[in-house]
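Box 3.1 — From sequence to structure: 3-hydroxyacyl-CoA dehydrogenase
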Amino acid sequence: DNHKFSGGFDITHLRKSTQGQPSNDVSDFNAILCQFVEGGSKPTVAAIETLALGGGLEVALACNARVCTPKAQLALPELRLGVIPGFGGTQRLPRVVGLEKGLSMMLKSETVKAEDGLQLGLVDKIVDPSRLLDEACALAKALADGSAKRNLSLYRKDKLPNEQVTQAILKEAGKQAKRVQSVMPHVALCVDAVAVGLSQGPEAGLTREAENFKKAVSSPAAKGLVHFFFAQRATNVVPGVTDIGLKPRPTKSVGVVGGGLMGSGIATACLLAGIKVVLKEIKQDFLDAGVGRIQSNLTSMVRKKRMTEDKARQLMSLVKPTLSDADFSQCDMIIEAVIENLDLKQKIFATLEQVCRPDCILSTNTSTIDITKIAAKMKNPERIVGAHFFSPAHVMQLFEIIRTEKTPPQILVDTLGLSKQIKKTPVVVGNCTGFAVNRVFFPYTMSATVLVDIGCDPYAIDRAITMFGMPMGPFRLGDLVGHDVGVHVGQNFIDDFPNRVYQSPLIPSLLASKRLGEKSGAGFYKYDKSRKATPDPDGVAPLIAQSRAQSRLPLDGSPVPAGLSPEDIAEMIFFPVVNEACRVLAEGIVVKSSDIDTAAILGMGFPAFRGGIVHWGDSVGPAVIANKLRGWATKYGGLYQPCPYLENCAIQGRTLAQGPIDTSIKARL
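Predicted structure (token representation):
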């Protein structure tokens, strides 16, 4: 298959298994590997070109020797999908590369390049692609005539450590696995299969591997991770846009307006793809600072050995810093990344329209402003498109592309093309307050403030949310973003959705006390010079007490709930998020529910093993969520009022993921 040894097991089959549909039994395949590939009458050699992943590498491990090309990549990434290697990988890999390396390759889904593979003994020889088959055949003949030693990977012991070291390594791996076992059981199942093979022999190990594979496949984590795998690959399919025969025009040069944190990050992302960048600022010192930020982004990659100094220099030479709009005249696309000020943005786009080519794509990186308002002063307002990156833009994977009713399909196809060039995952969304990610997650912090106002400790809330699987809780996140930004963004939702917001005095009172978060040294947490966070209960206690006194919750005079569990907290914070995701689906803001799932995972750090916000909502059950929300709405207000789409799914027993039943005329045409 186009010069790959094997990319591994067909994941569409894996998806069937996670959904409980019958799929092929793998035990007969394992028997074939043992009897014929590994121990048959003829020796076998794997000739590996470029990729040997998952099941592909497991087949190669069963061979008596392995030869590969210089660009080969070898890995067992099954754990990324919530399962474990199922074709003997848990038994053979530790015996071929050693126990410690074998475990870390599986548990961390590490990819090994050809050179490292040779040193580890994972491959026996690296050869030029043109010589691959000849060299593999020569090695097979040598194995057959006895001039080279024939190894059976399954029974090798030369790389295994002594009993004491083995136990120590397994104990440490087991400890790590136990920490995540309740939500990601596959890690422990993998370690267990390895341990059984070492203590009871490889045959017993293969049997345990097969049992554990079945257990892993039926776990919620495998369902979630496999769902996310497909969701992420389907975001670039947009009906009526990507299926009408249009080809993306390649982007060779991008103009970036504004060299702040966001602008310099976007510029860096473009440079990494070899795209020329024209960076514009209004003052020379701002311009120098912007170029400096790009330089330090690249320097940091050189420091982490992700790039050579030569490469960094070559990429910096693609940047043209300027103070004049006229330098944008040859760009294929402009991305505006200035502060969130409507007047300023309107002026910028009126100017861009005059200086840029008529086929140049004009885009804004706004995260909060309606893009039709930004385009209001343009002669051709339909030209504008939203290109919303997440900070830091050269690191974060998600790229929201915002379209209006009038956006021409070619502009969307070109912008989707850019996202592929810069290796981002695009999600096409309609134009509304907050677009997809910020809108779906606005109840996240608001609900957290409800919990504080009814007596919950903010640090307990953050702990519960990290236990749920988020990278950080809502208050630590607020500190990171800056509460001034949080209040500013929150105001948009208060203005546009007045009936379903909760306005706690808590965060505005932090602002009034100059506790902006990390940047001011204190928010809900205190920060030292290296920005390490420590809870600061004494600092925020008076503000919390004041907020509780003003908030008058519960609204219906019922008693405040006592002693909420981490699960209770996670439900109260995420159920309204599911509810807002339902609104976004029902309004047609996104094309399909899996796009919201991808956006939640890549844009907000929602745990991938839960499959995304809508997938998780379905696993809990629409009726359960609607019932709880209804109860909270009477106590705490409109933030929790279940939307009609969620209520309908609950009553009709439909899944949220199916999307609204489209009865519009447009859909029938």
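Summary of the box: The chain has a mean pLDDT of 92.
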